[in-house]
């Protein structure tokens, strides 16, 4: 939010760069393999229907589904996958004009 308030809205290049960065942030949360199993159509890591309730989107559905099963190996796996995508999304938020930060 701080960076969005500092944008020079008269400069179309700054607006485009910020918009591209937000687009990449959203794309960083898409898992090309989907949620696994029969849920390969649901690609978003953060918001997607859980297996238990397909009518409402939940936060980190693959993690919550793994917790519901109680399988610790599956929980660890899903948390690792979610962590990977969150870290990837974080890397898109770096300031584009400051490569060494």
TrEMBL record:
It comes from the Eukaryota. GO terms for molecular function: carboxypeptidase activity. This is Transferrin receptor-like dimerisation domain-containing protein. Residues 10-94 form the Transferrin receptor-like dimerisation domain. It comes from Rotaria socialis. InterPro entries: Peptidase_M28B, TFR-like_dimer_dom, TFR-like_dimer_dom_sf.
